[in-house]
Amino acid sequence: MRVESFANDDSTTADIITCLEKCGCCPRCIFRFLGEKSASRFKCYQETLKETLNDMKKRSSAEPDTSDNIDVDMSPSNDQPCPACLGILQQYLDKPFLTKIKDYVTKAEYEFKSFLCSLTVPVCVLIRERAVLVHLRDKFKSVYESVTEADIARVKDVWKWTAGPLLGDSLLVPFDQKSNFDIALMFNYPRTFKECEMFLDYQPDVFKRRKFKRGQGELFNRANVGKALKEMSDQRLRRAFQIPPTIPKVICECDDIRCTREPLYIAGRYNKYNRFLSQTPWFVDGKRKSESSVEEKICDHLKKHFNHSDSKFSASGREDVDVLMLGTGRPFVVELLDPHKVTFSKEAVKNIQKEINAASSEVQVRHLQIVTKEATNNLKEGEMEKTKTYSALCWSAAVLPQEKLEEISSMTNVVLHQKTPIRVLHRRPLATRERTVYTMSAERIDDHHFKLNLETQAGTYIKEFVHGDFGRTTPNMSTLTGVECDIFQLDVLKKHFNRDRQPEKVKENTPTENISITYRKHHHHLQKTSATLTENITVTYRKHHRHLQKTHLQKTSASLTENITITYRKHQQHLQKTSATLTENITVTYRKHHHHLQKTSLSLTENIILNITDK
């Protein structure tokens, strides 16, 4: 197999090999800096790579007596770390370390059909690779003048090319870079901070020491060090760093091995039959307000089957604690983070559903299934296009006549303007939301109680629609009936989705039926187009109306501000004049009083002198 090389001739390639061997580079790093990017080349054992390098030098040796071409194996020993990869491509590709990885994965007890590997390499490797390149530019300018770090195979890639297939043979599953199961290796080098410290003087604005504690590794990362190296000239690097890089006194260590897999998604629908059960755990100031929750009653059972590290529960909306979720139930999805068990048949999932339902009568689950991540997007898509059916037990301060109940039942498409309810204002922004009540039906229970069934747009606050929330929801049942109303109980009967509609059976149509269907479709299209145009005109009008209102308010505000400013200035001038007058009066009075005191004092002094003279 021919070796890829930046050099055009075998003689120069041999000289480059010798130069890199003198620097102490390992065989795999020598091939990296030669320009080799073939994964199959790096899969060879280190001894085989050494033999290949020696053969390359022998074939190109035109003058066997020259010192540079003598066949001497100057590559570092196994216990001498490579200055370019810090030993990652040496002992961490040997069988003992790969066996250690295999044992760890086996002990973790994950289910997986393929795997990938991810490496966290010490950031100082970037500096050392650049230092080797600078050294090669000094020795072989014509070859390496235009070569950059991007042209060199990365340490982590070479490790994966070599270790991936070997681990695959050991774990009996294929190595796949697109796998959802990841074996992560974290390498640490004790002198990383010391070797990167030069950047504190080079780019102090980027690398601010005061924000980080020494030795934590947070200050220097692959992104900022890579950017700094790209902007740093070879000449500056020579002044700041050893060229070629020194052979490390200690090898970098693999601090941690971790296995993780992508989340698994479980979806279904739940019914809630308890008016004291919240959807999610309910805490106020660190104190629990409810014994359990819908989330816990579902997720606690999933934990023992999927053995995941954590879970995230999401539902299509939420009901209040005192509201029942009836009918076909509310759609939900649980994201299982880092699950160990992932292979479940449909029958096994059904058994988990039965287990959840048997454990509690307060929460019942249906249609439980494993879904893709893409399918979970349906949970939030078209949120405002969904509709909900409710049943509310209501109270009225006065008896509602049957005619009024029938009038309420005949109302359709009632548009509500709902300010954020007072009860949720502490956690939601203040806004006025427009929602629609599509249909209503009111049924008398007794003189002061009636049952109200509603089909509304998703996101409608039903409780506030009934009692009005101190006039924050308009219209409301109190304004529609002319009688004060309140709500005792609320149940969600159904949450409607487009996908809930069952497809009609396909049958052969007669020509007349086809014409009729075509006409209806065309008519329906015209109706939709008309509705869209009307809606656009309405939206444009509202925007324009709001703009005019805003402009009017701005003008009014400006006018008021101007009037207030003028009034303030006049008042200030008046105060200044009054103050000046008062000051002047006080000054005149003071002077008069002072003059009077002086005269009195002189008179007293004169009398005293006369008395003394007389005596």
UniProtKB/TrEMBL annotation:
The name this protein goes by in its record: tRNA pseudouridine(55) synthase
Domain of life: Eukaryota
E.C. number(s) listed in UniProt: 5.4.99.25
Residues covered by the Pus10-like C-terminal domain: 265-494
Organism, as annotated: Mizuhopecten yessoensis
Annotated InterPro entries: PsdUridine_synth_cat_dom_sf, Pus10-like, Pus10-like_C, Pus10_N_euk
GO biological process: tRNA pseudouridine synthesis
Keywords, alphabetical: Isomerase, tRNA processing
Family to which this protein belongs: Belongs to the pseudouridine synthase Pus10 family.
Molecular function GO labels: RNA binding; tRNA pseudouridine(55) synthase activity
Pfam families: Pus10_C, Pus10_N_euk
Domain Pus10 N-terminal eukaryotes: residue ranges: 82-259
